[in-house]
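Table S2 (text version). Query chain:
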Amino acid sequence: MTMVHTLTPTADLKTDVDDVARLLTAEGERIADRDLDPWIADLDAQALRGLYRDMALLRRIDAEGMALQRQGQVGLWAPCNGQEATQIGTARVLRADDFAFPSYRETGVVYARGARPEGFLRAWRGEAHSSYDPNELGTAVQQIIIGAQTLHAVGYAMGIQRDGVDQVVATWFGDGATSQGDVNEAMVFAASYEAPVVFVCTNNQYAISEPVGVQAKAPIAGRAPGFGIPSMRVDGNDILAVTAAMRWATDHARSGKGPAFIEAVTYRMGPHTTSDDPTRYRDKDELEAWKRRDPLTRVEAYLRSIEEFDDAFAAQVQQDADELGAAVRSTCLAMTTAPALSILDNVYAEPHTGLDEEKTWFAAYLDGFAEEAQR
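Corresponding structure-token output:
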């Protein structure tokens, strides 16, 4: 079943955020949706508090990553401020034995899958190819090549089919990635082989500096049915709606019905990466409008309205965030810079002569700098 709230081809997708399925308004009012409600019938206030805490901790991790990059401790950082509900709401639905294929921005997925403080930073600092063990977390290395992880996800999902198990795979990518051949090829394979994979498109309104309306004149979720993949378009700042959509999608995939597609409409509050200046292509009014749709404040408002959010809970979340932030910061500052030549370690599972030649050349190249320093 395709669950797309349809827009006309001439709609302004950059500003129209109402044509989505949602369960919490920006003010925290609980509303009904016949497609989504059944999927979160068991989600009580305690569970929602847990999701709020996850989002709050993710926001703190993100803030620490930004600060560490500005201090020269991390080479680059891709912020996810504003996208917490999309990342936590989807990742928390997965089982421990499912497998995740995130892009470079899915810090929340890595967090939800159980990463320790070093798991958020080591690769961004340039100390390793991956900040964590993919097999330990059930999460592939964060992919910086736009859309490439979708093909990896489908391949893994096809392997699951051949293993005869009921695991599912999830992969995340941005609105800009949907114009990449890899993403479209991945959906062709997934649909053709009915692979158990969930595609999560995080529509954060901008592919770096290009607004989504430049490349999509109709909802992105509307593309998936063309491949034979059912889809849903939800408010990506609504943790309830995102959780419901992901439960629907994973149930669809796990039950042998093939892939599913979610378009989560959200907003990147910060820059594309720390090398970007969003003030060059976004105006203040747009930013302020999205601040009023914040995923954390709407959950807090809803929980307070049902008397399930008090000062004691807020203080505990703040304490947990402070402790995690301190751990992330101290872990990064304690890292020692690895020798430059180590960048070629662990590139291949088995050593070979070609890699030996590259190491020899790179070592000679590095020695050249040492000679210059001695002059």
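Notes on Table S2: The mean pLDDT is 93. The CA atoms of residues 194 and 258 lie 4 Å apart.
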